[in-house]
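Q: what sequence does this backbone want?
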């Protein structure tokens, strides 16, 4: 189908483009911007007057819960959530059950995702077998099966020698390693180790749980030359370590979750289990440091850290509740809210969830609206607001700390390879 997206405000961070013009789509690709190519006759015209036409969002961390956790969410439900949120490409962490440590599991996930014809799924393979931190996986075979990087998800590495060998192997073949900095012993609490946790009697997780692990990861990356990406940074101290590493010439990228841009440990309130996350919500100064660093580009991207949790596991006392929150449908609104509060151009805010995220994932066909690019497009009303309710969320996981919030940005249409997958 040939599609013309007419009268919209085209915002494409990859090409520094923010202007009103038409977008023309044919053969699953963007074939022109501005004027129609010779002989082009649209089968459908989407009137985007008053709307923003942007690249489909790229999410660096979205758990689809398959295989193994279908009672929390299914591939079908989370793909619908992605479409409603304008997310057309997403990275799936390896902490499924079983973990994504075998080529057959990765191929099955990719095959099922392709059959649904929704968001493009890019699995992050397990760095070690079963995420146990003992034996390296067959990274070459996992890469052939579709993995774009390797990591441990939320499972800390206890043996740094294994981590060193894994980085050496990955560096040799140019594989990306994505790591969340969590010390295996200091991260066994449930909340940030500060005044709030002390007052509530919650077991604290000190900032050092992040910085000690991060210092080790950065040192090993410097030694091995591996392509390192730090996922879900949560503290100002961790950010300082990233700055120092870059000053020494280390090529390292990092992201932050949308939750940590807007919330801090004070938001635990009266033991609200919806705010039980990994990493924990840190102090207010950490949140402000993360917001500023994302604005100036020291933090490269923002992710949803989408982690559907069912009600039986979430509606528990804070310390017993399963950590995690749904976020796929909130990635765009929370990014727009942060951008507006930081008084950033829309081009800059959207870059953190499109072009910058695509660069980290190694996607060249998505994350932008250049001629010849895959026609993955998000069309949204930047001025409209909606209230987040359980009923409005298409994800099977209905638990998020933003229930009741009125957030900006309402997705009107989501296109994947030129097919209108949301918005009719």
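A:
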């Amino acid at each position: 189908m040939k599609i013309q997206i007419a009268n919209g405000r085209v915002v494409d961070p990859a090409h520094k483009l923010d202007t009103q013009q038409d977008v023309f789509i044919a053969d699953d690709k963007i074939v022109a911007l501005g004027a129609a190519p010779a002989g082009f006759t649209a089968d459908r015209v989407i009137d985007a007057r008053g709307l923003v036409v942007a690249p489909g969002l790229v999410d660096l961390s979205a758990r689809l819960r398959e295989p193994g956790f279908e009672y929390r969410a299914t591939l079908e439900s989370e793909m619908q959530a992605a479409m409603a949120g304008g997310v057309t490409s997403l990275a799936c962490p390896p902490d499924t059950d079983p973990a994504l440590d075998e080529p057959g599991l990765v191929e099955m996930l990719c095959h099922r995702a392709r059959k649904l014809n929704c968001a493009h799924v890019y699995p992050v393979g397990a760095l070690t077998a079963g995420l146990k931190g003992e034996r390296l996986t067959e990274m070459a075979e996992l890469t052939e099966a579709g993995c774009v990087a390797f990591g441990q998800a939320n499972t800390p590495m206890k043996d740094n020698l294994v981590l060193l060998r894994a980085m050496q192997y990955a560096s040799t073949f140019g594989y990306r390693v994505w790591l969340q900095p969590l010390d295996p012993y200091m991260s066994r609490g449930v909340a940030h180790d500060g005044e709030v946790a002390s007052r509530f009697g919650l077991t604290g997780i000190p900032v050092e749980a992040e910085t000690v692990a991060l210092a080790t990861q950065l040192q090993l990356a410097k030694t091995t030359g591996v392509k390192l990406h730090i996922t879900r940074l949560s503290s100002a101290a961790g950010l300082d370590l990233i700055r120092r590493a870059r000053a020494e010439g280390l090529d390292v990228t990092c992201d932050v979750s949308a939750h940590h841009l807007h919330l801090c440990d004070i938001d635990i309130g009266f033991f609200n289990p919806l705010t039980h996350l990994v990493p924990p919500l840190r102090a207010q100064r950490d949140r402000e440091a993360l917001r500023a660093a994302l604005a100036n580009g020291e933090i490269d991207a923002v992710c949803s850290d989408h982690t559907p949790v069912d009600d039986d596991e979430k509606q528990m006392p804070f310390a017993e509740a399963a950590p995690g929150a749904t976020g796929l449908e909130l990635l765009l609104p929370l990014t727009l809210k942060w951008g507006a509060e930081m008084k950033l151009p829309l081009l800059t805010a959207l870059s953190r969830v499109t072009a910058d995220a695509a660069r980290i994932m190694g996607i060249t066909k998505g994350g932008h609206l250049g001629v010849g690019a895959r026609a993955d497009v998000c069309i949204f009303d930047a001025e409209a607001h909606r209230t987040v309710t359980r009923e409005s969320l298409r994800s099977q996981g209905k638990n998020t700390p933003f229930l009741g919030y009125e957030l900006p940005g309402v997705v009107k249409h989501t296109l994947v390879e030129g097919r209108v997958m949301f918005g009719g």
